[in-house]
Design goal:
Helix 2 (44-57) runs antiparallel to helix 8 (194-213). The chain is 74% helix and 0% strand. By secondary structure, it is mostly helical.
Length: 471
């Protein structure tokens, strides 16, 4: 096998483990909440705690990999992720579970961005789309298997056992990385921007903590809003700080590249809707429609199956139509399928729900293939590390926003009707809200040039022949 095939498959073990973990947790969310004596909506803190950890540590993942070597960091990150999984299984309170998820996020912050960095530095640009497809196909198997396995374990055993799924996968990843990864590092390593790391890390963390805690759970409203405002102030200070040093921890100047800027801004808007799905959909099926975790998991896996199917033809679609045309149209189509989730009722045939989720998974996956590939189309190799960190931070922030905004919409709808409990009718407005935000990505992708990313996709724009041209 070529490098463009072997390296992505090794990195895929980390993505497989991370995606399986997130989907089994989403399926088991109501059962975990019941076991810990908490409202299911409060478990949004456990989902966002992981993303908060990612936001803090992803910006230094490239620097750490350049200093210690990508193989060393990748293997250590897998070990930390497994240790965090064991801590989640041992948790007996919401605070303990949130802390364990935060620790688990430290490993996640290093393993996936560093693995992606290995791919970007090992694979020629002409093979990048195919390499990313090799990366995501095995990784998408995790979300397909995760909901049914998580539902089965939660229904017939105990939710704590779902976290032991990560252990054999992580061990396999460490062994494979040992044999197939080079310990890639940059010859010149700039000093770590400690002040920037503190400003950006604390800023992102407090913003997401504020958003996640707004509502009736855990923190007083004044403290939640204080975190949100304080985090924004810290991020503004970071922006001023980054302009005055040579090597900021997050290089915002990379947004000057049109393709990278579109991938970050448009991709973030689009991911907000996607980030809400793992939180809203299992809750709707289990709390709203009364399904058990197993039946819920046997329905929600359809979205991941659709995502896997489109990976087989995604590169061909891009070569035929180009990035801009696909991304502009698909942003609206995918957002439409997201909104349709809000029309489901307890009487909707499960076959119809599965079909909608399957097609929706296809179109969302195609959009992510486009966003992930075009982001690096115009970048030079020395910028790849910084670009990977910035793109990953934006991705995790948008996913966290999806969970937080979805939960806020649920609570707002219930409060509007004078209730504190969540019922099936509350999910429609929540899905419509996040779908609208995702649809706004259309405007970012529309600003791309018609031939944007042609070097990566292989698509070429053929100029039309003038009408008065001689034969």
């Amino acid at each position: 096998m070529r490098t463009s095939q072997i390296v992505p498959l090794v990195v895929a073990t980390a993505l497989f483990m991370e995606n399986t973990d997130s989907t089994v947790i989403a399926t088991a969310l109501p059962a975990i909440a019941k076991s810990l004596g908490e409202d299911p909506i409060a478990l949004k803190l456990a989902l966002t705690a992981y993303l908060v950890s990612l936001a803090i540590f992803i910006p230094i993942s490239g620097w750490v990999a350049d200093r210690l070597g990508a193989r060393t960091v990748f293997r250590a990150a897998l070990a930390v992720f497994m240790a965090g999984s064991l801590a989640c299984a041992a948790s007996d309170s919401l605070a303990g579970f949130v802390a364990a998820r935060f620790f688990q996020g430290i490993g996640g912050a290093m393993m996936v961005p560093v693995g992606r960095l290995v791919i970007l530095r090992s694979v020629p640009k002409s093979e990048l789309v195919s390499a990313l497809a090799y990366l995501t196909i095995p990784a998408l198997v995790g979300p397909i298997l995760g909901p049914p396995i998580g539902g089965f374990i939660t229904t017939y055993f105990d939710w704590r056992w779902i976290f032991f799924i990560n252990i054999p996968i992580g061990i396999a990843g460490i062994v494979l990385a040992t044999f197939y990864f080079e310990n890639i590092r940059e010859a010149e390593r700039p000093p770590l921007d400690v002040v920037g790391f503190l400003l950006s890390g604390l800023g992102l963390a407090t913003v997401m903590l504020g958003l996640a805690s707004i509502g009736r759970h855990l923190l007083p409203a004044s403290l939640s809003w204080g975190c949100l405002v304080g985090g924004i102030v810290l991020l503004v200070l970071y922006r001023r700080h980054s302009r005055g040093i040579a090597h900021p921890v997050i290089r915002l100047d990379l947004l000057r590249y049109p393709t990278f800027r579109a991938a970050v801004t448009g991709g973030s808007l689009f991911r907000i809707g996607t980030g809400a799905i793992p939180f809203l959909l299992p809750l709707m099926l289990q709390i709203g429609f009364g399904l058990d975790p197993l039946r819920s998991g046997l329905i929600t896996f359809a979205a991941a199956a659709g995502a896997l199917l489109i990976k087989l033809i995604g590169p061909r679609i891009l070569r035929t139509y180009g990035f801009r045309r696909v991304m502009v149209l698909n942003a609206l189509v995918a957002s439409g399928f997201l909104a349709v989730n809000g029309l489901f009722t307890a009487e909707t045939p499960h076959a119809v729900i599965i079909c909608v989720l399957l097609i929706g998974g296809c179109v969302r996956s195609l959009q992510f293939t486009c966003v992930n590939a075009i982001a690096y189309a115009d970048l030079e190799t020395p910028d790849m590390s910084a670009a990977t960190s910035l793109a990953s931070v934006a991705q995790q922030l948008s996913l966290s926003l999806g969970v937080s905004l979805g939960a806020m919409a649920l609570e707002a709808t219930a409060a509007y009707h004078g209730r504190t409990d969540i019922v099936a009718g509350d999910f429609g407005p929540a899905f419509f809200a996040v779908a609208l935000i995702s649809a706004l990505s259309f405007f970012s992708f529309r600003r791309l040039r018609p031939d944007a990313g042609a070097e990566v996709s292989g698509h070429r724009i053929v100029a039309a022949e003038p009408r008065n041209a001689m034969p």
